[in-house]
Amino acid sequence: MTKSGIPPVTFKRIATAMGFSPMAKANLAEVYRIAQRCDAQMYVFHIGVWNDRCEMTYTGFLSELGISKSDVELVCKEGDPKEELRMLCQENSIDLLALGALVREHMFKVFTVSIARDVCRKAKVSLLLLTHSRVEGMPCERIVVNGLDHPKTLDTIRTALWLGSKLGSKELFVVDELSEKSLIKPDDDKSQLNSERKRKQIEREQHSRIEDMLQNCQVPVNLDIKEQHVFGKRGYTIAHYAKAKRADLLVVNSPDTKLGLFDRIFKHDLEYILADLPSDVLIVHTTKDNVYE
Questions:
Q1: For residue 70, what is the DSSP state?
Q2: For 127, which of 15, 149, 171, 283 could close a Cys bridge (C-beta 3.0–4.6 Å)?
C-alpha cells in the first residue's frame, strides 16, 4: 500500500549477463528473485559461443534454483561483450540490467576496467551492480538514495521507493550531499557561529525541497523515510554514509555525460562510488522523456 503521488518508474524487463564466473549461479538466483518481486520478464544474455557445456551448466543452474526455462528468455550473441550487451538491451527494450561487480577497483587496474563498469559508464538503461549475491538470498532492509538538487533526482527517489516496496525494505534514507564551499571557513568564534547559521539555513532550505519531492511520490506506508543532509564531496560522501549505515542498496542518479578514463583517474560523483562499491548499487537511468520539472 502506498500514499498518493506521481506513479513510479517500474522495471518490466530485467536482464543479466551469464558469463559462468564463480558468482554466476548466485547472480542468476538474485536477479530471478528481483524479477519475480517486480513482476518483470527476465532475460539472460550470453556473449560468446554457446556450446553443449554452457547449455549443461545453465540448465543445471536453473534446475538447482527451481527456475523454469519458460520463465527466462535466453539470448546468445557473439562479439565484444561491452558493445553487444548495450545492443541487446536496446533490441529487447530492457529497463534494468543487473551485473556482478568487483567490490574494489584497485588504482593499478585503472586501464583494465571490468565489463560491468564499462557498461555502467555508457549504458542507456538503469543498472544494478551486485556485490554480494547469494543463492539463498538476503533481505534488502535498508536503502540509501541520493537527494541531490538535480532534475533527475525525483525519478531516482520514486524508483527507490517503488523498488523498496517490492523488496520489502524497512528503511529508506534520502541523503542530500551539500558542498562545503557554500560555508564560511571559520577562523574565529564569530565566523564559526556564522558558519553554523549558514549550515542550518541551507539544511532548512534543502529539507523543504526534499519534502516537496516526497509529496510527488508514492510512498509505501510500511517504509520508514528518513532524511540526512551531509556536507562533503559528492559521491564519496554518500558512499561513505551508505557503508556506515550498512545499507543493502545505494540508489543514485545516472551520470549526465559518458564518463571516460580521465574521469576515473580524477574521480568525481559516480566514480567515487564505482571505485569502492559500499553495497549493491542501482544507477537509475533517466531520459528527457521521464524527467519531471
A1: G
A2: 283
**Beta strand residue intervals within 131-206, DSSP E:** 142-146, 171-178
Sign of CA dihedral 119, 122, 124, 126: positive
pTM, full prediction:
0.86
Whole-angstrom distance, CA of residue 279 vs CA of residue 133: 11
Give whole-number Cα distances, 55 to 15, 59, 84, 134, 196, in Å: 18, 6, 20, 22, 63
**All structural domains of the chain:** 13-290 (3.40.50.12370)
170 closest CA partner among 243, 246, 235, 117? 246
125: number of CA atoms within 13 Å, CB side?
27
Question: Looking at residue 268, what is its pLDDT?
Answer: 56
CB neighbour list of residue 220: distance below 8 Å, 6 or more residues apart: 1, 2, 161, 164, 165
Grid coordinates standing for 237? 560522501
Strands 126-130 and 280-284, how do they pair?
antiparallel
Q: Are the beta carbons of 17 and 76 closer than 8 angstroms?
A: no
- Would you give the distance in Å from CA 207 to the centre of its chain? 23
**What pLDDT is attached to residue 108?**
33
**5-14 in b/e burial notation, b at 16+ Cβ within 10 A?**
eeebbebebb
| Residue 111, pLDDT score | 31
Question: Which residues contact residue 35 at a Cβ distance below 8 angstroms, ignoring those fewer than 6 apart?
Answer: 14, 41, 42
Neighbour count for residue 134 (Cβ, 10 Å): 12
> Can you read off the three cell numbers belonging to residue 94?
530492457
Question: Mean pLDDT of residues grouped by 10 in the chain (293 residues)?
Answer: 59 91 90 96 95 95 96 94 87 92 49 54 82 87 94 92 95 89 62 73 86 88 90 89 95 73 52 83 72 40
Q: What confidence score (pLDDT) does residue 2 get?
A: 52
